[in-house]
Design a protein that fits this description.
Length: 295
């Protein structure tokens, strides 16, 4: 609520705002923004929430939803739900701190509130890899990058997960999120690893990390090879890359842990492995946190 200090000389203003409030016209100023982590590392997901006064029905149009500004972008908030599916009295958005956002102070702002956060260095290591001739380029197939970008931009209103995400492969992680790469002796400028690599054997199962809908299938693409993308709702989309086999089709509804494909080395890969990426509102996030905690 808007506060007036006791003994304030602004008693006229007090009466003015009190009467507006009684008339139901006065929205409380400085709605409190809460964040799950005020000191997030580069690549970490942050939950931002705002108090909400009334229940709303799910048919509310996107134009009526509040937005949050951060890092020169606007993010749409959704009505939050409890784990039993009942609406709670909050608006909520998940966003990822970009892996390449310089550490320092940033501000989340809404129409009438602000919250400062401090982005911490992710300390991503350097990895040296060798790629055979012909696979050491970043040239994409026609339409490949556009299709992947469109999948990242999805913003379905319904959140389809209710627990932490499952691992997409049982294999060990051979390359973590955010690492910088030296390929065939050359540091790749402006490159950070956008996901996690699982050192899985050729043909081993690839499973969904959470319930969702298959929104993109890519075949024999130069960079991603064979790819599956799954929309989990509210801007969260997972990608399964370099597959040898795809077992689902576009539009399929999938459960968490469902086998959707097999590990391969299609596209720009130096050997069989699963590259798994998780995008939150179009920004790659470190999926390892999602395997441990519920967002
Ligand atoms: Zn990878």
């Amino acid at each position: 609520m808007g506060r007036l200090s006791p003994g304030s000389h602004n008693w006229l203003a007090g009466i003015f705002f009190a009467s507006l409030s009684l008339a139901g016209l006065f929205e409380p100023a400085r709605a409190a923004i809460s964040v799950s982590n005020e000191n997030p590392k580069q690549g970490q997901t942050v939950e931002v929430s705002l108090p909400r006064k009334e229940q709303i029905d799910s048919a509310v149009s996107a134009a009526d939803l509040p937005t949050l500004q951060f890092n020169e972008r606007s993010y749409q908030l959704f009505p939050a739900k409890e784990s039993n599916g009942v609406q709670s009295c909050q608006w909520r958005v998940l966003l990822s701190i970009p892996a390449d956002l310089p550490p320092g102070t940033y501000v989340f702002s809404t129409g009438d509130g602000k919250k400062q956060i401090n982005v911490v260095d992710g300390n991503f290591p350097l990895q040296k890899i060798r790629l055979p001739k012909g696979k050491d380029t970043f040239e994409a197939s026609p339409g490949e990058e556009e299709a992947v970008d469109r999948a990242k931009e999805l913003l379905s209103p319904e959140r389809l997960w209710r627990k932490h995400f499952d691992l997409p492969s049982a294999a060990r992680i051979s390359a973590g999120f955010g690492i910088k790469r030296v390929v065939n002796g050359k540091l790749l400028p402006d490159y950070t690893h956008s996901g996690v690599d699982f050192a899985a054997q050729l043909g081993s199962p690839v499973r969904t990390c959470a319930p969702g809908v298959v929104v993109l299938i890519g075949r024999n693409w130069k960079l991603h090879g064979n790819l599956i993308a799954i929309d989990h709702g509210q801007g969260v989309v997972s990608f399964y890359i370099h597959l040898s086999k795809i077992l689902v089709k576009k539009g399929d509804e999938v459960k968490s842990g469902q086998m959707i494909g097999q590990v391969g080395h299609s596209g720009r890969a130096n050997g069989p492995h699963l590259h798994f990426s998780l995008y939150v509102n179009q920004v790659a996030t470190n999926p390892c946190d999602w395997f441990k905690q519920l967002f």
